[in-house]
């Protein structure tokens, strides 16, 4: 195995497989910094691709070639990695969808399914052709498996549905919701007579008769309170399922489902079993957040820890070929040899896998550089030189903040808080929110208490978001759950020991909201208690951003509806509301003006007259998940956003 530092350095080299140094047309050199002060407001400077990566979602092996599917690229690709040649020899473009989560094989054909939109493609590995064979109205295709007679079964969301595709006839059949009312089918297998569907956010294991459609629950009653049956593999005798969020492996006798074993992953802090393979009398499975690879002997009822191929990485698929076990991770594959016990790590971008601009997730400027968060790390753009480096992180930076030379990153999954200082080769893990939290939503710093405030969304299927308070001085993290009952805190700004919170009505994914309108709330950071709540925009799903006016007496916010509101903190009432954008995004106040975005336009607001005008348009920012972001330069003379998938600098005056 390779030490963690070398892993992160390998990840950091991923992005440099394609040219990243900006040309003079893309990034201003150091001597241009003074010129920028004279740029007319609204001037756009293109800084090149915002975040370049080669993230993977699934894979299949055919005739000694590992076919790996990308996610978040445009277009996505399936790369053919020749195991004997140790190189990626061919790419097959998948022109629709934002990623490939599901793959399976039928003979020498590889099937790849996309999400957002849900299309099914067949790759003829002999002829080297790609054909779109079906499309579905479902939001995501999460999982896919082939039956012994060559039919393809797909698990989708939302709701959690099972579909069948017959390659012989080119027709599809809807087998309906696996477990009515549940949002996700996240794992699937099929034999000659049944389809087995793993369901969440409330766990079910459903056997569907392929001929009659009859359904039968196989999940033992003892496990009925689990969240997900999230991964699955099958042999002639056993069905193995990975369950969340207690990191349990269910191994079931197919002939007699009442004969089963629950195996608990042993690494400290393990929560998810993300991929499973039944092979040669064993179950190989991978956990998160640790990234540990395990092997369970079915006959011997013994669990082994084989190692950690890459610290905290997600293993999307485990496959076997010619006596070796292969694990597919972001931009890489590990190879385990059961005969020697060795694990080899192979960066596929270094072996020819295409890296390309991805859909970015976050953007932040510390004044000298811009961080753009994406899958498995962030690209750091040096504003003086145009140089771009990759900061490898085992997760997705969703939000960032710089305080006294340290940049803090809120990272999905596990609601983790990392820290990075310019020039360091890797980020440091500071803490995790725990409390069944998953997705950081914002970061703020309060000077009075010295606390970093990080609101988070709970794990899929769980209720109540949380508010985590981290002290850089003591290293202590304190998490309050709930912060706002039955909602997630989405945005936060602080002043003099009070955190002002904007909420999202969605709790964990897969749960229908139980509240109808997003709230504005105040939280006492020292006392650790909620002070008051208000609903500023009727029917708004989220308050996507908050900013304080110059005197601190007025709080400005942007709602998911695209409305901007002004809230008088003394009177605790909305004093103005203005329809600005098509949807909610980031909002910043500088002096008597504010700037906000809906992803396509950046707007300038005169806060005295409470009017808005379009500053720039046509950005068409391709943000991951459709959540538009924006960053304010500390000089308050520039904003950073994306146009398409390029990072852009927009000059601002900060004056009415």
UniProtKB/TrEMBL annotation:
State whether keyword Signal applies.
Answer: yes
Coiled-coil boundaries = none
Q: What residue range is the signal peptide?
A: 1-27
| Highest taxon above the source species | Bacteria
Under the heading Gene3D superfamilies, the entry gives:
YVTN repeat-like/Quinoprotein amine dehydrogenase
Q: Which UniProt keywords apply?
A: Signal
Q: Which SUPFAM superfamilies match?
A: Quinoprotein alcohol dehydrogenase-like
Q: Which InterPro entries match?
A: Quinoprotein_ADH-like_sf, TAT_signal, WD40/YVTN_repeat-like_dom_sf
Listed PANTHER family: CELL SURFACE PROTEIN, OUTER MEMBRANE PROTEIN ASSEMBLY FACTOR BAMB
This one is known as Outer membrane protein assembly factor BamB
Q: What organism is this sequence from?
A: Nonomuraea roseoviolacea subsp. carminata
**What is the organism lineage in this UniProt record?**
Bacteria, Bacillati, Actinomycetota, Actinomycetes, Streptosporangiales
């Amino acid at each position: 195995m390779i030490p963690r530092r070398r892993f992160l350095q390998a990840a950091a080299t991923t992005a440099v497989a394609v040219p990243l140094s900006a040309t003079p047309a893309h990034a201003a050199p150091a001597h241009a910094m003074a010129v920028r002060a004279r740029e007319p407001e609204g001037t756009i400077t293109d800084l090149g691709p915002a975040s370049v990566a080669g993230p993977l979602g699934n894979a299949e092996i055919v005739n000694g070639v590992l076919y790996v599917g990308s996610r978040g690229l445009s277009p996505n690709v399936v790369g053919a990695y020749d195991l004997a040649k140790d190189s990626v020899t061919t790419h097959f473009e998948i022109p629709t969808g934002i990623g490939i989560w599901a793959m399976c094989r039928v003979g020498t054909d590889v099937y790849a399914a996309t999400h957002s939109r849900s299309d099914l493609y067949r790759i003829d590995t002999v002829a080297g052709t790609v054909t779109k064979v079906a499309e579905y109205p479902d939001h995501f295709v999460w999982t896919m498996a082939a039956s012994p007679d060559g039919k393809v079964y797909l698990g989708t969301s939302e709701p959690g549905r099972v579909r069948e595709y017959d390659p012989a006839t080119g027709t599809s059949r809807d087998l309906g919701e696996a477990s009515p009312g549940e949002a996700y089918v996240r794992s699937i297998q099929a034999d000659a007579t049944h389809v087995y569907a793993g369901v969440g956010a409330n766990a079910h294991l459903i056997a569907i008769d392929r001929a009659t459609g009859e359904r039968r629950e196989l999940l033992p009653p003892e496990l009925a309170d689990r969240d997900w049956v999230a991964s699955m593999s099958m042999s002639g005798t056993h069905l193995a399922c990975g369950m969340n969020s207690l990191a349990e492996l269910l191994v079931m006798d197919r002939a007699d489902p009442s004969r089963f074993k629950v195996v608990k992953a042993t690494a400290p802090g393990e929560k998810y079993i993300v991929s499973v393979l039944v092979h040669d009398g064993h179950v190989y499975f991978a956990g998160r957040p640790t990234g540990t690879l395990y092997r369970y002997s079915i006959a011997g009822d013994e669990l082994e820890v084989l190692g950690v191929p890459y610290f905290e990485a997600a293993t999307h698929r485990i496959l076997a070929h010619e006596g070796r076990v292969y694990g597919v991770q972001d931009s890489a594959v590990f190879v385990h040899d059961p005969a020697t016990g060795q694990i080899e790590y192979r960066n596929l971008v270094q072996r020819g896998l295409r890296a390309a601009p991805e859909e970015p997730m976050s953007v932040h400027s510390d004044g000298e550089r811009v961080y753009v968060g994406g899958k498995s790390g962030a690209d750091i753009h040096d504003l003086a030189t145009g140089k771009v480096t990759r900061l490898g992180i085992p997760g997705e930076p969703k939000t960032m903040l710089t305080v006294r030379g340290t940049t803090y990153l809120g990272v999905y999954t596990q609601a983790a808080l990392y820290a990075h200082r310019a020039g360091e080769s890797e980020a440091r893990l500071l803490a995790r929110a725990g409390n069944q939290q998953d997705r950081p939503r914002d970061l703020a710093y309060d000077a009075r208490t010295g606390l970093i405030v990080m609101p988070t969304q709970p794990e899929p299927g769980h209720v109540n978001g949380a508010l985590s308070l981290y002290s850089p001085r003591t290293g202590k993290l304190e998490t309050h759950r709930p912060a706002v009952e039955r909602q997630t805190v989405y945005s936060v700004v602080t002043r003099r020991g009070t955190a002002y919170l904007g909420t999202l009505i969605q709790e964990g994914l897969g749960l229908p909201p139980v509240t109808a309108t997003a709230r504005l709330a105040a939280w006492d950071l020292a006392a650790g208690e909620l002070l008051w709540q208000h609903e500023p925009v009727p029917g708004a799903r989220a308050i996507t951003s908050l900013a304080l006016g110059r005197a601190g007496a007025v709080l400005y916010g942007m709602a998911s509806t695209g409305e901007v509101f002004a809230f008088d903190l003394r009177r605790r009432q909305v004093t103005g509301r203005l329809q600005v954008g098509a949807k909610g995004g980031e909002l910043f106040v500088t002096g008597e003006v504010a700037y906000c975005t809906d992803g396509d336009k950046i707007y300038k607001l005169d806060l005295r007259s409470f009017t808005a005008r379009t500053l720039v348009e046509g950005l068409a920012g391709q943000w991951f998940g459709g959540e538009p972001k924006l960053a304010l330069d500390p000089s308050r003379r520039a904003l950073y956003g994306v146009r398409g998938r390029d990072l852009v600098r927009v000059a601002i005056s900060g004056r009415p």
